[in-house]
Amino acid sequence: MSWLEKPRIVQEYLPIPPANNVEFWNHERIEHIRMLARFGRPAWVWDRAKHTSRRILDRIRFRAELESPTIEPREVDDVDTSTSLAYRQIEMSSPLYLGDMSFGALSGIPNIALAKTADLTGILTGTGEGGLYEEVRRYRRITVQWASARFGVDLDVLNTGMGVVIKIGQGAKPGIGGHLPGVKVTKPISETRRIPVGLDAISPAPHHDIYSIEDLGQRIMAIKEATGKPVFVKVGVTNYIAYIASGIARMGADGIIMDGQGAGTGAAPEVVRDNVGLPIEIAVPVVDKALRREGYRDGFSVIAAGRVSSAEDTAKLLALGADCVSIGTAALIGMGCIMVHKCHLGFCPAVITNKIEENPARILSLDTATNWTVNLVRGWTAELKAIMDVLGIRHLDSLVSRRNLLVADGLPSDMAEIIGVG
Amino acid sequence: MIASMGSTGPPNVEEPVFIRDHLVCDGAQVTRPSIDPYREPVDTQIYLHGVGIRLSQPLILSVHPDYPSVVRRALVRAAYNLGLLAYIRGTNLAAGEEVYGGRILLDDGSRSHAGLGVVRYYGHNGPIMLKTPSTIGLEWAANLSWKNIVGVIVDEDHAGSDTPIEVATSHVDRMLRRISSDGQPMRDRITLIASSRSIRGADDIFKLVALGADAVALGDAALIAADCIGKTPSEDIVYERIENLAIALQKEVKLLAGAAGVSSIYTSLVGNRELLRAIGLDADTRARLGVKLAGVG
What we know:
By secondary structure, chain A is of the alpha/beta class.
């Protein structure tokens, strides 16, 4: 019986199983992320996985790549990837935010590894819905989430960390609330979220006290008043994203986290995941242009999420108009995720999203998971530096909204025009 | 169906097969609230004007002549019990089906009107629906006497179909809104049904309703759900599978509606193309559908 034995500590990657279907996170992308996570050094400069992908972002290229298509990966020193978020309230060593994955969706060790990574590398980790796990709380560079179910949220929790995220929606299921399947609501989760063991935790689809942009403004101000911390609003990307973003900026938020279609999730109705929402690469330029037009762009942070898979994706999203990207799935792959899409069942083979038991048979090694994630951030940043070097850009801020660096490669002209690439 | 991690669906990962694979649905965010389909009511009922009946959801179950008799019986029973319609095609009623007549559309292939197929509502003498191929050639409509006609079925499986069902459905919907009868748009009293064997699930249903259909007739999805090719499960098992399919489709339609902030399919979704956006469709097709490009506010 497993509870008579010590848990086995997992500290190596599983072999990647053959994919049955077409998969965005294919072997090439997983192998690349593993290279970064193992060695913390650049593994390529131009993303090689994009050539077989249907994604719109993969059909946008840097002009510089067309001029210098083959560049060996290398470390570059005299390029600065540091930036700041939320009207200069949060300094970042690299434009990477480890995105909003909850204690419960992940099995504890990964949550700690993500938070610890942010402290070690000077970036930021979102802790997701569902209350703050004690082991995560001690790290400084985290944001706490104020989501529709308000699981485990009190003033004390809101005052922890560097900022508060009001979660309105997420890319995998805009308009649908968070969902932690009953099989994963074990005793430790029940204590953190203050809900009964074994019952599905389905968060309300809307916040029942936010039915308009004015309501949102009141909540933003209340949280700022209570905590003095920057407030971010997280939304899924939908048809009217430009109006939503401009409303969020007008109502005094310090930033928006936009999560595009295709983003990861611990559990979502398949029909919603596959049909609702727009890709992030459409939202970023549209929102950037709208905010600039209205004079709300300076200092306000645009964080882009959803299928951010490489440094090239990061550089492109910044050039399209984001300040920072959010990495979720890629961080899990760095910790050993093999993309079997079974998080909701609680039996993750890579022990990342398995249910949290009191006497587990296997647990992820915290040291290894942290090393992998720290290396991933370092390797990713190094690749970003190499790209910036090719682009001739020394400071990250001069990459933001530089759509003229990009060119459409096989995109219909009307879509290229919406995105603002030649 | 609950799933996890990022989508692998079309058009961004898998290759799109149909036009509807290029269409994405809206999610309501802060500027208007979404509706919680697990806790709040989402009304899926559809009222079919001329026929004078309600469907519990925008779903019609097609019965093709090649379906095994056990599936046919299950479809007819399930349509009756769940407040839907069975759409029996190419044959007359089988023995014992008359009792379900109040929930049967019958196309026995025997009659035609202005060169189009005629589908009869079995529960009622008199009102008929026209069955057209999926096409944008609508010359038939110009001089038609609409007396007794209560609906149009755009049928992608009908001989002569030369246009994808999405385009034809949207086209007929708009045509019926343009022509009027007694000062009212014809569409106000004519039911529009989109029918195709290729309908796969709630997403297809939701998108075709947003493109103008009052209800969507699915075909082979039910056959797949019955899972009886090469096997012979009992009639009760087949019935249960069909019923589960219909109930699950209703739940999924509610999820999509709730996510989009739609509380009533009939009043807020039918023809509401604004809830859709296109990724990777040319301008001409978008114009025919009446759907904007993704990224256009």
